[in-house]
Design goal:
Chain A is mainly alpha-helical and 247 residues long. In chain A, 76% of the residues lie in helices and 0% in strands. Chain B is built from 11 helices and 13 strands. The longest helix of chain B is centred in the middle third of the chain and has 16 residues, at 162-177. The chains are: A mainly alpha (247), B alpha/beta (303). Chain A: Belongs to the ABC-2 integral membrane protein family.
Chain lengths: 247, 303
C-alpha cells in the first residue's frame, strides 16, 4: 500500500475514534431529517415555498450541515492540534511531505461529506419522497464548489488560529451564522426579501440555493456558483499565504 | 569525513539570536551530546541539522548533503525524535509504526523493533494510554524505522523515572553498537557523562566548550574534598605535612581535608599507621556537573 493510502486510512480511523465528530457529522444530519420528515405539516406542499415542502428544503440544508461541521470544525481543529503537538513537524523529518497529512485530512472529511450526502438524499427519497436531483450534473458542480468554498474556509481557520482552542472557537462561531444562512432555522425561501438577498451572498446561503436549484431541475444560478468559487479562491489564498507548519 | 559538519551556524528569531557561530563535527558511530541550559539554542541547532529550520548563516552538511537545499536526501538518512509528543492521542502503537514505516522506501522491520524496545504487548494501545517511558520508546522506534544512519534524540529522558531512564540509556548504546551515529540533546550531566563520546556545551547560543566528558571535567580544578570522623583525636599537623593535602578544617566532630592527586590514599594510609579509623568517610571530586556549571553559570537562569 502506498504511504498516502496508509496515511488516509490512519486518519479515517482517527476520525471515527472521535465520538463527537461521528455523532454530529455522520449521525445527526440523517437523524434530524428523519425527525423533521415525521412532522406531517412538513410534508405538505406550500405555496409560499414555491410549491415545495419543508422536507424538500431540508435535504440541502442537512448537506450543508455536514459540510460545515466537518470542513469548518473538525478539519481545522484536527490540523491545529497536529501543529500544536508537533505532528506536522515530526512528519517533516521523514521523506513524506507534511502537506500530505493536510491532504489526507481533506480526503477523509470529503469522504464523510459524500457519505452523508448519499445518506441524506437516499433517506429523503425513500422515506419522504423527496425527488432525486433532477439536474445531476448541476448538482455535482454545485456540491464540488460548496466543498471547495467550505474546505478553504476551514483551512483558513486552521491557518490563522494561533492554537487549537482558538481554532475550535472560531469553527463554532462560524458554524452558527453559516447554518443560519443555509436556512437551518428558517429556510431561505421563507426569509424576508432583504435577508434572502444577504443569504445569497454568503457561502452557505449560495450553497443551499445552488443545490436546491439543481435538485429542482434547473442549472444552478451563476451568481451562486460565482459566489462559491469566489469564496473558495479568497479563503484558499489566505489559507495558503498564512499557513504555519509549527506553532 | 565527518557524518555531520556544522560551521559557523547562526540563527535568529527576530531580534533574538538563538544560535551564534556554532561549529562542530560528529564522527561516524559517535554519540555526540549537545548540552546546555534551557533556551541555550540546543534544539534550534539540531532542528537546523535535521532540516526543520532554515539558518541565517553558516554551512551544515549531513553525510555531505545540505539539510535545506537537499532536504529529501537528508530525510532519508536521518531519523529524529523531537522534544514534544508528536503523535495523535488515539493512534495505536502499531498504527503509528506502520504509518511511519510507509514513509520510507526500505523501512526496518517494525516487529523486530518493537520487540527490542519492549513494546510488543502494547501494539494495540493508544498513544495517550502509554506511560512516559513507553511513549519515549515509541518515539525512538519511529526515529529508527527508516533505518537511519544518524538518529537525533532531543531531551529523550526528560520526565522519565530513574529506571526508565537507565533502560533508555542501554537502548541508545545498543543503537550505537549497530553503527548509528547519535546526536543527543540533553540537560542531564549524568546522561552526557554516561553516554557521550564527546559533548558540545552550548550557552546563550554560543559554543562554550567541545570535548570528551573527562576532558571537560579536567578543565575545572581537580581538587578533592574528604570528609570523615576520626575514631580518635588526630594530630592535624601530621596530615598537613602530606604532599597532596592543601587545607584541613574541623567541622564539629568531623575533619574536612582538601587536596589533589592521591590525597585520599595518603590520608587514609597515614591515619591507619596511627591506628585511627576514618569513619563516615565521604569524598567529593569535580564532576561533569562542576564543569558544566563553570561553563554556563554566568548566564544560568537567564531567559
Amino acid at each position: 500500500m502506498s504511504s498516502f493510502a496508509v496515511l488516509v486510512r490512519t486518519e479515517a480511523k482517527l476520525f471515527l475514534r472521535e465520538p463527537m465528530a461521528v455523532l454530529w457529522a455522520i449521525a445527526f444530519p440523517p437523524l434530524l431529517l428523519v425527525i423533521l420528515g415525521c412532522v406531517p405539516a412538513f410534508r405538505v406542499h406550500q405555496h409560499e415555498l414555491g410549491g415545495l415542502r419543508v422536507i424538500d428544503l431540508y435535504v440541502p440544508i442537512m448537506i450543508l450541515f455536514v459540510v460545515a461541521m466537518t470542513a469548518v470544525n473538525t478539519l481545522p481543529g484536527a490540523i491545529s492540534l497536529y501543529r500544536e503537538r508537533g505532528v506536522l513537524r515530526r512528519l517533516a523529518t521523514t521523506p513524506m511531505p507534511a502537506s500530505r497529512l493536510l491532504l489526507a485530512q481533506v480526503v477523509v472529511n470529503v469522504a464523510v461529506e459524500v457519505l452523508v450526502l448519499l445518506l441524506v438524499v437516499a433517506i429523503g427519497r425513500i422515506g419522504f419522497g423527496v425527488a432525486l436531483p433532477r439536474a445531476p450534473l448541476g448538482y455535482l458542480v454545485a456540491f464540488l464548489l460548496v466543498l471547495c468554498a467550505m474546505l478553504a474556509l476551514g483551512m483558513m481557520v486552521a491557518a490563522v488560529a494561533p492554537n487549537t482552542k482558538v481554532s475550535n472557537a472560531l469553527g463554532m462561531i462560524l458554524f452558527f451564522p453559516l447554518m443560519f444562512f443555509a436556512g437551518l432555522w428558517l429556510p431561505v425561501a421563507a426569509m424576508p426579501a432583504t435577508l434572502r438577498h444577504i443569504a445569497e451572498f454568503t457561502p452557505s446561503g449560495a450553497a443551499t440555493q445552488a443545490l436546491g436549484d439543481a435538485a429542482a431541475g434547473s442549472w444552478p444560478g451563476w451568481v451562486h456558483l460565482v459566489v462559491l468559487a469566489g469564496y473558495a479562491v479568497v479563503f484558499g489564498t489566505v489559507a495558503v499565504r498564512s499557513f504555519r507548519w509549527d506553532s | 569525513m565527518p557524518v555531520i559538519e556544522v560551521r559557523g551556524l547562526r540563527k535568529t528569531y527576530g531580534e533574538k539570536v538563538a544560535v551564534d557561530d556554532v561549529s562542530f563535527d560528529v564522527a561516524q558511530g559517535e554519540i555526540f551530546g549537545i548540552l546546555g541550559p534551557n533556551g541555550a539554542g540546543k534544539t534550534t541547532t539540531v532542528e537546523c541539522v535535521s532540516g526543520l529550520r532554515s539558518r541565517d548563516a553558516g554551512t551544515i552538511r549531513v553525510l555531505g548533503a545540505d539539510p535545506r537545499a537537499e532536504r529529501d536526501q537528508v530525510r532519508r538518512v536521518l531519523g529524529a525524535q523531537l522534544q514534544e509528543s508528536a503523535l495523535p492521542d488515539k493512534i495505536t502503537v502499531v498504527e503509528a509504526l506502520k504509518l511511519y514505516a510507509s514513509c520510507y522506501r526500505e523501512p526496518a522491520d517494525w516487529r523486530a523493533l518493537v520487540e527490542r524496545l519492549g513494546l510488543t504487548d502494547r501494539l494495540r494501545t493508544r498513544y495517550q494510554k502509554l506511560s512516559g517511558g513507553q511513549k519515549q520508546r515509541l518515539a525512538i522506534a519511529l526515529a529508527l524505522i527508516g533505518r537511519p544512519r544518524i538518529a537525533v534524540l532531543d531531551e529523550l529522558t526528560t520526565g522519565l523515572d530513574p529506571q526508565a531512564r537507565r533502560d533508555t540509556w542501554n537502548l541508545i548504546e545498543e543503537i550505537r553498537a549497530d553503527g548509528v551515529t547519535i546526536l543527543l540533546v540533553t540537560h542531564f550531566m549524568e546522561e552526557a557523562a554516561r553516554l557521550c563520546d564527546r559533548v558540545a556545551v552550548i550557552n546563550a547560543g554560543r559554543l562554550a566548550a567541545l570535548d570528551t566528558p573527562d576532558g571537560l571535567v579536567s578543565t575545572v580544578d581537580d581538587s578533592q574534598q574528604i570528609r570523615f570522623r576520626p575514631s580518635k583525636p588526630v594530630d592535624t599537623a601530621l596530615l598537613a605535612a602530606l604532599p597532596g593535602v592543601t587545607s584541613i578544617r574541623r567541622d564539629g566532630a568531623e575533619l574536612l581535608v582538601s587536596g589533589t592527586g592521591n590525597v585520599l590514599a595518603e590520608v587514609v594510609g597515614t591515619l591507619a599507621a596511627a591506628g585511627i579509623l576514618a569513619e563516615h568517610l565521604r569524598m567529593d571530586s569535580a564532576s561533569l556537573d562542576d564543569a558544566y556549571l563553570a561553563l554556563t553559570s554566568n548566564t544560568e537562569g537567564e531567559q
